[in-house]
Amino acid sequence: MVDGERIDGAWSHIWRRYRPDGEYYLDDLIVFADGTITCGERTDLAGLEESLATGRLAVSNSTTPALPDEPSKWASRHGEPLTPEGFLLEVADRVEELNQRPTAGERCWDAIRRFQQEPTESGRALLRAAYLAVPPHLRIYVLGDMDRQDRPLRILLTDIGEAVDGDGPVVTAEMHRDALDYFDRADQGVRSEQERQAVLHADDPSGPGRGVLTSHETVYPRGWPEQPGLFMLRNEFPAQITFAGESYASVLHGYWALSAADASDSAAIRDAASGREAHELGGRAAHRNDWPDVRLAVMAGLLRAKFTQHPGPAQVLLSTGDARISYTGLSDSPFWRDVPDGRGRNWLGRLLELTRSELVAQQALRT
User: Fold this and answer.
1) For 356, how many CA atoms within 13 A lie in the half-sphere containing its CB?
2) What 3-state class would DSSP assign to 51?
3) CA-CA distances (angstroms) from residue 223 to 233, 238, 248, 328?
4) Which class for 44: exposed (0-12), middle (13-18), buried (19 or more C-beta within 10 A)?
5) Nearest-angstrom CA–CA distance, 188 and 66
6) b/e map 327-353, b = 16+ CB within 10 Å
7) Helix, strand, coil percent content, the chain, rounded in steps of 5
8) Distance (Å, rounded) from C-alpha 154 to C-alpha 128?
9) Checking DSSP bridges between strand 25-32 and strand 9-16, what pairing results, if any?
10) How far apart are CA 9 and CA 35, in angstroms?
11) What is the pLDDT of residue 200?
12) What single string gives the DSSP state of each residue in 139-166?
């Protein structure tokens, strides 16, 4: 966080040592969108380059035996070895990605498409420069092809009459045409998949939706304000509802009353002076055996009753448009609310969105 603004970052392992003659140990290196790099201390790309040059940081453990040399670069299935220079290129690329700017791989694809449209020698030179800008250890992944890796690109960048990688096949004009055909087929495959996805996902929203709406839990010890607004969405908001033949002062009263196994507990919860008191009474009471299986349906029914029986809260809910509703707080269990650590399932937010959709459908039927 910088001045209240969230700066996105990405994480990687790196080898680090404290003393020039000390042993390396594995540490975390974090790269942020603003170019800040942290690994024990804060630095930047130039500082990272210096640390790699002096040996304070390393991209591999010096005690690890070196891999044997590949007998043939063309036949190899492995990428180039990871080097400090390549790692610096990768880190710089990650900063671009965090800022939603084109990465070296994406720029390489742009050069491929330009060369497809105009396969000239100047275009091939630009394509070669874009390919070489990709970190060497990542080049075999640039096309996203597990089988052929980056071979079609290496063929295309080799002059006719020259051997690919120095020890591969001698390039011919036909091999250049086959390589271009490879990219044309890939484009056609992408277009076909996009068309297929357009059919399968035809019900996706066509435009951007509203931002997330957060429903906060708030206590009003002196009573609710005259214009409670979005607080009408809360289950504790006093809105008398009739559900399953009984009347309840709020959704919270109804939910906990219906959870109770004993009729006397249910009556006491129903008649509680406030939603908070109903919640506490319901939490102490013995629950129905089937409660875990039916509670979602009960809550859905209570919310439907609230918003169909009270036009004011219904209009507030409809005013949220298509926003995702994040129902937060501390009183409800993570099953019902949105919790940042991943435990929250936000079922109340989801059911409010479902109820909103039902209200819209009912309006459409009336018109």
Assistant:
1) 18
2) helix
3) 16, 10, 18, 21
4) middle
5) 42
6) bbbebbeeebbbbeeeebebbbbbbbb
7) 45, 10, 40
8) 9
9) antiparallel
10) 9
11) 93
12) GGGTT--TTTTTHHHHHHTSPTTSBGGG
pLDDT of res. 139 = 97
Chain center to CA of 68: 39
**Are 255 and 235 in contact, with CB atoms under 8 Å apart?**
yes
Q: What is the pLDDT of residue 169?
A: 97
Please provide the distance, in angstroms rounded to a whole number, between the alpha carbons at the two ends of the chain. 49
Backbone angle region of 3, left / alpha / beta, with phi > 0 → left and psi within -120 to 50 → alpha: left
Q: Which amino acid is at 231?
A: F
Name the phi and psi angles at 249, rounded to 5: -75, -20
CA pair distance 139, 80, nearest whole angstrom: 8
What whole-number distance in Å separates Cα of residue 273 and Cα of residue 260? 17
Q: Which two tokens stand for residue 269?
A: 């919860």
Hey, where are the domains in the chain?
9-63+73-98, 105-200, 213-366
Instruction: Give the H or E element holding residue 312.
Output: helix 311-318
Q: Which residues of the chain have pLDDT under 50?
A: none
pLDDT the model gives residue 130: 98
pLDDT value at residue 208? 82
Integer CA distances (angstroms), 267 to 223, 260, 294, in order: 24, 9, 20
Whats the size of the chain, residue-wise? 367
Paired sense of beta strands 241-243 and 25-32, if any: unpaired
Which helix (H) or strand (E) segment holds residue 105: the answer is: helix 104-117
User: Phi-psi bin for 4: left (phi > 0), alpha (psi -120 to 50), beta?
Assistant: left
Residue type, 38: T
CB atoms within 10 A of CB 105: 21
Question: If you classify domain 213-366 with CATH, what class do you get?
Answer: mainly alpha
With a CB cutoff of 8 Å and minimum separation 6, the contacts of 163 are 74, 169, 170, 171
- β-strand partners of 25: 16
Question: Taking a C-beta distance cutoff of 8 angstroms, is the pair 246, 233 a contact?
Answer: no
Alpha-carbon distances, residue 136 vs 35, 86, 131, 150, 197 (angstroms): 22, 6, 9, 11, 34
